Amino acid sequence: MSVTPDASRQPATAARDSGVEQASRFEAVIGLEVHVELNTATKMFCGCAIDFGGAPNVRTCPVCLGQPGSLPMINAKAVESAIRLG
Amino acid sequence: MHPLVAADAVGLQRLLKAREVSATEITQAHLDRIADTDPHVSAFIRTLDQAALDHARDIDRRLSAGQEVGALAGLPLALKDILCTKGVETTCASRVLQHYRPPYDATVVRKLRQADAIVVGKANMDEFAMGSSCENSAFFPTRNPWDLERVPGGSSGGSVAAVAANDAPLGIGTDTGGSVRQPAALCGVIGVKPTYGLVSRFGLIAFASSLDQVGPIARAVPDAALLLEAIAGHDPRDATSIPTDVPDLHTTLEAGVEGLRVGVVSEFMGAGMSDGVRSVVTAAIDRLGALGAEVVDVSLPHAGYGVSAYYLIAPSECSSNLSRYDGVRYGLRVDGETTEQMMASTRDAGFGPEVKRRIMIGTYALSAGYYDAYYAQAQRVRTLIIRDYEAAYAGCDVLASPTSPTTAFKLGERAADPLSMYLSDVYTIPSNLAGAPALSLPVGLDDDGLPVGLQLMAPVLGEPVLFRAARALERELAIDSTPRGNGSLAQVAA
Ligand SMILES: [Zn+2]
Predict the structure, then answer these.
(1) Most-buried pick from A60, B99, B253, B389 (CB within 10 A)?
(2) Side-chain half-sphere of B347: how many Cα atoms within 13 Å?
């Protein structure tokens, strides 16, 4: 969320402004950043499972570890879901 | 020279199938050859004697039991040290990866193992494939078997020198701007840059992802065809891999060039080429005409901008790809007081001067405010070059030019002048920008007795006609690919 001053209004001296007048000089612009966890079976760029609670470093592979030579493959289900979400 | 190391791959296969020799004998003969030659040539960063012999014995056991063996069974192969081999150090000839052991095999390596090729060693190269002489290896330069005081070319100089020195009948290199074809020309062997996407890049340590392509090296065209058929094919692990069948190169390999239209690229026959290269290449093109090909002149008007576009696109992609070498997860780490200092010190110690130069160029070209002027403009030039090729192929089956403007140059001769080194690849770079296949075929020697390569080019997925034209000329010229003459390997390792 961000609040920006409305440049079209004339500046007024601080002494004359009441709280309401002060607030009316701003225009509220509200944006929402929504995080959702997609119900894919595997990670975004590799075939590793996304399940939680396993032993450390078992659901990893050369791709998600960024090993030299590895290449990401985008998760088709994630792309489909993102398109459906708009 | 032992007859088994003088033989080509197809000949060795015939002997193995007839059970006249064993895979172990073939492998041992090549390991002995490496022991004789490599003190002079320095083609290998490491040899894999034990693993090679173990694999060969396994092949022999299967042959004795009447079991299946792969398409490259028992054929020794030099593998560029840019392809990941599980558990075996893969360095990219860089200090930053000096002791790196990949936890996985590259797709090409997996296919080679499945085909039962015998990987005899990891071959030297310019660091991260950046260079045209093999002098940018962090470890040592490789030498040209035709003249040990000269460079083998680069960046796949180790794999190519190994094949030229009869250390192996087959080699694997990678070609981003000419890195298979230019050394193949300078060492008198065959080097192929396949269509972008025909061979998987998974496990190939990235330099410039939109240009890199794995390619075969051999001393005979049928051998190169055999190797390409074994490594090509769709890979679901590489998003740029073409979902197409493995090309059938053998059906038309011996079909000759009669009726083919060969376009000679005018822009690649101008100034900047040595007289020796010009006369040998012109004679080879005349022979294609004598064999029944129709030889015509064609123009690629924008090809002259290829080097400039390449030296913006390739460093830009390199600066991104090499950002992963930060000392955190793998490879070299130089300690520092803060994380940032550790990363800076690691990269300072880990990368050589040419790699640093390209990271700087690429980072600058991609930075805010310069992106449109440099990277985006270079991509527009790339589109123009692709259109030039399309227009040329409307009237031609293949195109021809020299591979390199000169024959092999002396060690140190161009090391101090990056621009003169970059111009080594002036005729090879446009094919990478267009994503199209090309190969270099040895077609003769210049007055100094050094090999000259002819470059043949074809449209995307035009490998069958490319190999067909190369094979026809190879048969006609019957070139002896054994390095010989003053200063050559023949004088120190018969
Ligand atoms: Zn993974």
Answers:
(1) B389
(2) 18
